[in-house]
Amino acid sequence: KLDVEGSELRVLRGSLGLLRDRVIGALLFEWWPPHLRQLGEEPLALLWLLTSLHYEIYAPAEWFGEDSKDVQWVLVVPNQFGILLKRWGDMLA
Predict the structure, then answer these.
(1) Is 25 exposed, middle or buried (0-12, 13-18, 19+ CB in 10 A)?
(2) What is the pTM for the complete model shown?
(3) Series of mean pLDDT values for 10-residue runs along the chain (93 residues)
(4) CA-to-CA distance for 4 and 52, rounded, in angstroms?
(5) If DSSP states are collapsed to H, E and C, what string results for the chain?
C-alpha cells in the first residue's frame, strides 16, 4: 500500500522503471486530492501516470452509487477521473 501523505505521485515517479517493467503488478494507494494539492501536485496527474503505464484504475463502488454487496470496486476510465476529485480513500491500480 502506498500512503505517503500526498507524496504518492513523487514516489511513483521514482518508481517508473519498476512500474514500466510491471515489477509492481498491483498497487493499493491512498487517494486524497487535498494532500496532493498541498504539495503542489495536480491530483489527476497521478491517475494519468498510472494509466499511461497501462494500469487500470479502480475505485470503491460506493463512490459511483453501486449498492451491490457483490461489487466492491469499479473500473474508472479517464473520462470519469474528474468525479474522483471530490472523493478520498483507498484506490487500486
Answers:
(1) exposed
(2) 0.88
(3) 80 90 92 92 96 96 81 93 95 96
(4) 22
(5) CECCCCCHHHHHHHCHHHHHCCCCCCCEEEECHHHHHHCCCCHHHHHHHHHHCCCCEEEEHHHHCCCCCCCCEEEECHHHHHHHHHCCEEEEC
